[in-house]
Amino acid sequence: MIVGNGYGGHDDYVDGKVIEDPGRVRYLNQHLLNLEEAIKDGCEILGYTWWGPIDIVSAGTGEMRKRYGFIYGDKDNKGNGILDRVKKPSFDWYQKIIETNDAVLHDEEALEDVREKYEEQ
């Protein structure tokens, strides 16, 4: 069972839009591809969970700057923000992975479509 896997990045919220999180999308995709290989090699994988689907305050430092979620939480280290929740590109990518039962992991065109969707907004 793999629990608490995630990618911490410095995602920003500008004019009501979340700046892309391509590093998180690539990280997620590569980790799931590696899990697929591990299963083919005989490893028993019982489950996989992502660390922090929604951006959360760091338990260790109390900071919000480093974010792990697929959903942006509008709050900064000083407590400023209105707590809006905004989907990031990684949200759509993870949703697509689940909907296709991971078939989309090998589809570079689908990966590019997620990125382009957010550039157009």
TrEMBL record:
Pfam families: Glyco_hydro_1 (PF00232). One of its GO terms (cellular component) is cytosol. The keyword Isomerase does not apply. One of its GO terms (molecular function) is beta-glucosidase activity. Gene3D superfamilies: Glycosidases. GO terms for biological process: carbohydrate catabolic process. InterPro entries: GH, Glyco_hydro_1. The keyword Phosphoprotein does not apply. Keywords: Glycosidase, Hydrolase. PANTHER family: 6-PHOSPHO-BETA-GLUCOSIDASE ASCB-RELATED, GLYCOSYL HYDROLASE. Belongs to the glycosyl hydrolase 1 family. This is 6-phospho-beta-glucosidase. It comes from Virgibacillus oceani.
